[in-house]
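Workshop exercise sheet. Pairs work together: one partner reads the sequence aloud, the other fills in the structure field after running the prediction. Swap roles for the next sheet.
Pair: D.N. / O.F.
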Amino acid sequence: MVRKQLAQLQAVRASCTNDRGVVIAKIARLLDDRRVDANSLRTIRCSDTVFSVSSLCSSSTYQVDLDPPGEKGATCTCLIPNQCGVPCHHVMAAVKREGSLLTDMGAFYEKFVDKVYFSAYFQRAVGSMTAYMPAGRGLEDVLPMSTDPVIIAPPNKVRRGRKPSKKRRRSRGECTPRQIYVSNKAAQLSPIQSQIH
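Structure field:
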């Protein structure tokens, strides 16, 4: 299992070192697909930065703000940009309608894509990972093993159960708890009170 996880991490590391774009290749492909999907959306400008985006074949309408106050990127009522940090196809349609933002893709990525998807950031995060162990080498070859075996024995003391399963039989002449209580109470009473009782 460890070997499989290390192989997966090595594949991620190799893919991110091969990325030469501003954003990682997976996000660039996703944005290209969303740009194509944006062609089937109708966009209406509501204000300078707010757009109403609706589908041509359904009645759903989304509000897109390309420059929300106090936030980086864009917001959409579908919440995909807020949750993922990558613009949805509604934002792509609004950006396409705006027109000026698509001339420089570097500025587009800087404004709308979260920094964790940038190639440089991703390479810094993944670059210092442990390298993959080649086949044939086990964990015994990599991790130092102790030469002294440690023997772990079970404890000597056996725990007793909390409540006995059977009621204990009293021996002949043994007092019951009630008799003990009554005799202790009688001993505490003064001689006059014991005559009354």
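Discussion prompt: The mean pLDDT is 76. What would you look at next?
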